[in-house]
Amino acid sequence: MIELIYNLLEDGYDGLVEIEECSCDYSPKNTVDMTDEQLGCVNFLDDGEIWAEGHLHHPELEHLVVCHAVHDICTHKPYSIPDLLRLNDFWVEAHLICQHIIDQNGKRYRSD
To answer: Rounded to whole angstroms, how far apart are CA atoms 112 and 59?
Structure first.
């Protein structure tokens, strides 16, 4: 059933079935030892708040902090709680977009 739901979502959402996303802007000051917070790449939806809405808002689940990803899967997608508990394959995709922005005179854009 999980694969069927995924395939239906993939067809209906133009291949976009993301749960969470983030982006980071390039800076020449960025280094490989910087944390996600220092890079400005923070998932602000993972804020420690309880995202229990709809059928996730249940007295037996009150002791759990329902994160935004679980909220998204069970509230905005057609997965049930048992479907969520049976999910066992996850992947992360990273896309890099490099832009070279120049003005009409061929001068490189700089934000300094």
So the answer is: 53
